[in-house]
Amino acid sequence: MSKPRYYFIGDGDKANLDFPSLRFDYLRCPYRFEAIFEHGVWRVRGAIEDNAMHLPEGSQCLHYGQQLFEGMKVQTGADGKLYAFRPRENARRISDGARYLHGPEIPEELFLRGIEEVTLANKPYIPPYGSGAALYVRPFYLGIGDNVGVKPASSYIFRIFVTPVGPYFIGGFGPEQGKAFRVSEYDRAAPMGTGHVKAGGNYACSFHPGAEAKGSGYAEALYLDPVEHKYIEEIGAANFLALKGDTLLTPKSGSILPSITRRSIMELGEKVFKWKVEERKIALIELDEIDAAACCGTAAVITWIKEIAGADKKWSFPFDKRWQQLYDKLTGIQTATEDDPLGWRYEIK
Ligand code: PLP
Ligand code: COI
Hints:
Layout: E1 32-38, E2 41-48, H1 60-63, E3 67-69, E4 72-76, E5 82-85, H2 87-100, H3 108-121, E6 134-144, E7 155-165, E8 179-183, H4 200-204, H5 207-215, E9 220-224, E10 232-235, E11 238-244, E12 247-250, H6 260-272, E13 276-279, E14 292-297, E15 301-309, E16 314-316, H7 321-334, E17 345-348
Parallel strand pairs: 8-9, 8-15, 12-13
Antiparallel strand pairs: 1-2, 1-7, 3-6, 4-5, 4-6, 5-17, 6-7, 9-10, 10-11, 11-12, 11-14, 14-15, 15-16
Helix pairs in contact: 2-3
Bound molecules: pyridoxal-5'-phosphate and 2-OXO-4-methylpentanoic acid.
């Protein structure tokens, strides 16, 4: 299928933005991609200009949280090409979520086409290589219709918007940029609930713990397991990593989001750096024996942790050069300054 082309005045030029100064904020770009599921089929509307949405007032997404989203980045490589990172993994995760919320899956082909089309339609807004910024891509999925009963919708919207962003945690990555997190007394997900899917409701219930943590000077809340409040789960919108001796550790839990960044980091640790890697339960008290800690995600990339504050104990961690090695390798693969031994770059053209 031939792809539509979009022309800007000065086509190929960059929008008049100070890319290196961007923060993680929404900036409205000209186009968004949309597809509608009705009568059992996905119909592609393509790139559209209106950033406001007109929804039936009874829509399931508005009342009962039948909603999912994804988060990805498109970056300009050192070779001037445009790259997404492992987008098929995001396609798989949103369809896993759709099955759990009893809605239709999004075919991989539709997901990839949407990412490509919305990226190319907003080309001047893609931050240049070396600016430290990226095009954040936000696919989302809404159950809609004339409804009042508690049941899945029969119609759905799949939309993708993009916005150029800077670092999620102010300051970005570096030996001076450790962040401090506070252990939350609240849970973000129930033991057999929706923590493993990227449903909006998981984030609504993180507002209060997040506000408490930020209100007392921390970057975000760190969640413990919702059964015993004993094991580390994840941090805000990022998974947890630790270094203990020569082993890279990450929590095993059914109620955290299966992070694509984390999976990639664990694979780099094991296959590229030949470290020992383990996915297992990590008790909060095991922080006594941990040498270094970090969190990771699309938005957070790798953020090293300088402090974790529990109810009656604080742990401090140094910067470990292995975080730098992982950061350089991961971002190098994403921006084509490194080889791509595991085939993770996805060129958009
Ligand atoms: N955990 C939560 C709760 C998140 O929202 C995210 C962000 O997507 C992550 C972890 C990291 O996941 P990923 O690396 O796939 O972006
Ligand atoms: C991401 O890392 O893409 C996320 O989804 C984080 C987001 C909730 C801001």
